[in-house]
Amino acid sequence: MIAANRHQIILDLIESQGSVRTVDLADKLNVTDETIRRDLEKLEQDSLLQRTHGGAVTKQHLNKDRSFEERSIQNIDAKRVIAEAAAALIKPGDRIFLDASSTALQLTTFIRTMSDIVVLTNSALVATELAKNDAIELIIAGGLLDRQSQSYIGPAAIGTLRRYRIDKAFFSGNGIDEMSGISEVNDAQAHIKEFVIPRCGKAILLADPTKLGVSSTYYFAQCEQINTLVTCKDVNHPILDNLQNKGVRLISAG
């Protein structure tokens, strides 16, 4: 298959899925991983995608505010193993914050049977899941409902969060870049996280490998503000070593 045909197939896949993995493309197109890496490098040079560790994402993936339904089905297996590992960090008596990310929603699967914890969230979907357990004290940061993310935003949400101590904040983003920091495609969501992170006891970032080394639109935290990064096992990316050198605890899930 000539390179132009491969490129079109890659672009079609990434348009429909939001992200692709090098190994999957090599298998599908019956070429070597190195060939796919060269293809992705060329497409990135043409500004048609952005490479990530182990694959690539669309430019829209990084800069367009997609619906929660779209985000919730992408990289779902990675999000589940990350969420399970993150749940192990929660102890009785903890007062935690969960953001409106799809990974935080996966986290509710592993904490919905816990007791003696307090959960603060601006996510309507997280609140719905955890409301089923009377043993969890649930505090919803109300405000303007953002229907795209099914979450509450704005001054009223910030005002609620301002009143409470937060021991551990679990959050995600669209990208993590060593120099620029952690970014988000939604300005209002970025503002919520920017408020919470400096005020919590521990800031815990949940990031699947497609987010490593990339940047989105709005920066809300510097890498030095992260206490713990939870990502997938068998990931080899320079940013991980650099974060550990800065004192960030790395948890490899799966």
Question: Can you describe what's shown?
Answer:
The protein is α/β, with parallel strands linked by helices. It folds into two domains: 3-63, Arc Repressor Mutant, subunit A; 68-253, Rossmann fold (3-Layer(aba) Sandwich), CATH 3.40.50. 40% of the residues lie in helices and 23% in strands. Strands 6-5-4-9-12-14-15 form a seven-stranded parallel sheet, sandwiched between helices. It has a three-stranded antiparallel sheet with strand order 1-3-2. The radius of gyration is 18 Å and the shape is elongated. It starts with a helix and ends with a strand. The mean pLDDT is 89.
Topology, pairings included?
Layout: H1 3-17, E1 19-21, H2 22-29, H3 33-45, E2 50-52, E3 55-57, H4 59-63, H5 68-73, H6 76-87, E4 95-98, H7 102-111, E5 117-121, H8 124-130, E6 136-140, E7 144-146, E8 151-153, H9 155-161, E9 168-171, E10 175-177, E11 181-184, H10 187-196, E12 202-206, E13 218-221, E14 228-232, H11 238-245, E15 249-253
Parallel strand pairs: 4-5, 4-9, 5-6, 9-12, 12-14, 14-15
Antiparallel strand pairs: 1-3, 2-3, 7-8, 10-11, 11-13
Helix pairs in contact: 2-3, 6-7, 7-8
Q: What structural class do the secondary elements suggest?
A: alpha/beta
Mean pLDDT: 89
Total beta strand runs: 15
Rg on CA atoms, Å: 18 Å
- Corresponding CATH architecture of the largest domain: 3-Layer(aba) Sandwich
Please summarize what this structure is.
This protein is α/β, with parallel strands linked by helices. The protein folds into two domains: 3-63, Winged helix-like DNA-binding domain superfamily/Winged helix DNA-binding domain (Arc Repressor Mutant, subunit A, Orthogonal Bundle), CATH 1.10.10; 68-253, Rossmann fold, CATH 3.40.50.1360. 40% of the residues lie in helices and 23% in strands.
